[in-house]
Structures are given as structure tokens and as C-alpha cells.
Design a protein that fits this description.
207 residues, mainly alpha
């Protein structure tokens, strides 16, 4: 058995988590809400920040809840059935599903909300600290990408501080690294002072 899981269980955890994570709530809710295709708006990103550019806060909120919720669901279901390692694997698979959804040609979002959902389910004290970091930086600087990067950078630290289990620490580190990598263009704009602030219409987006 790999990681204490049978091949069948391992496949169910990884494939199930990935398919759950690949549900593109940003695309679905903007279409159902009559706001068009979010991929043709602003940055083209499928996350809540770009959905907000439709002018529909309700759709952005639904996207945020859906993207975070699928991370929560993946971790909770797998952990309750097969333990901590399975929960971490399912969370990681759901995160990859959001970043690279098969339904959208593997072109997904940047993973901030899904990463937060995974953290809240896997280690809620660390998740709350990451959420607080995100909210604080956003309130001070009004730059979505900067708040996402700050929360991602601090997440592994928070996981270590609460002495999270090894699979959970690995999951959080994995998600944090990928969130930072998905924000490479945003980092370049931050360094050049060209990153837009929340509420300002722009062609490029943050999270």
C-alpha cells in the first residue's frame, strides 16, 4: 500500500479530489447569472476577483464560496473516510483541479480561495490566521494579489506554529508555493508599481 492507502482508495482520493476541484464556479455562476463568460472579462481569470469585475458582487461571493467550499469538501470527505493522509492528498488534488481543470483546457484560476478552503478544513487555526493576514493586507494596501501572496507566504509558518500533522504541513506548503508561482505576473507588476488596486478597472487582475 502507498502511504497506507490501497491503490483503489488512492485513485478515488486523487481522481475524486481533482474532479471536484476542477468545477469552475466562476465560469458557471457568471453564465447562470447572465453576466457572460468571465474569461472574456478583465484578466480572463476564473476567480472571484475577476468575477467582481462584472459588477456583480453576489456572483463574486458565490464564486468565492464555491471555490473555497470545494477545497473544504475534498479534505473533509477523504479524511473522514480514510484518515489524515487521504485528506491531505484529496486537498492537494482539488487544488490542482482548480489550477488545471480538464473542462477548461487545463487553464484555471490562481487558487487563493481553494487554498484557503483546504487550509480551513485541514488545520483551521492556521487557516484562520491566513485569512486574517489576507484581510489585513487587503485592508491596508487594497491590492488583491499582495494580500494573496502575503497569506500564502505565511501559511507554512502558521502550520508549523500550530504543530500541524506532517501531511497537513506538506499540503499547505505545496499550495503556498503554487499560489506564489501562479502570481508571477502579479509580482512583476507589484515590483514595477503597476499592479491595480481593488475597485479600479484594469485589464489585468490579481487573485
Amino acid at each position: 500500500m502507498l502511504l497506507g492507502l490501497t491503490p483503489v482508495v488512492l485513485a478515488a482520493v486523487v481522481v475524486g479530489g481533482y474532479l471536484l476541484g476542477s468545477i469552475a464556479f466562476g465560469v458557471l455562476v457568471t453564465r447562470w447569472g447572465g453576466a457572460g463568460d468571465v474569461r472574456a472579462i478583465g484578466s480572463g481569470n476564473i476567480g472571484a476577483t475577476n468575477v467582481l469585475r462584472t459588477g456583480r458582487r453576489d456572483l463574486a461571493a458565490l464564486t468565492l464560496l464555491g471555490d473555497a467550499g470545494k477545497g473544504v469538501l475534498a479534505v473533509v470527505v477523504a479524511r473522514s473516510l480514510w484518515g489524515e493522509t487521504a485528506g491531505a492528498l484529496a486537498g492537494g488534488a482539488a487544488f490542482l483541479g482548480h489550477l488545471f481543470p480538464v473542462w477548461l483546457g487545463f487553464k484555471g484560476g490562481k487558487g487563493v480561495a481553494t487554498a484557503l478552503g483546504i487550509m480551513l478544513a485541514a488545520a483551521w487555526p492556521a487557516g484562520l490566521m491566513a485569512l486574517a493576514t489576507w484581510l489585513l493586507v487587503l485592508a491596508v494596501f487594497r491590492i488583491s494579489s499582495l494580500s494573496a501572496l502575503a497569506a500564502a507566504a505565511m501559511s507554512p509558518v502558521y502550520a508549523a506554529l500550530i504543530h500541524a500533522a506532517a501531511p497537513v504541513r506538506d499540503l499547505i506548503l505545496f499550495a503556498a508555493v503554487l499560489v506564489v508561482l501562479r502570481h508571477r505576473a502579479n509580482i512583476s507588476r507589484l515590483l514595477s508599481g503597476q499592479e491595480p488596486r481593488v475597485g479600479r478597472r484594469a485589464e489585468t487582475s490579481a487573485a
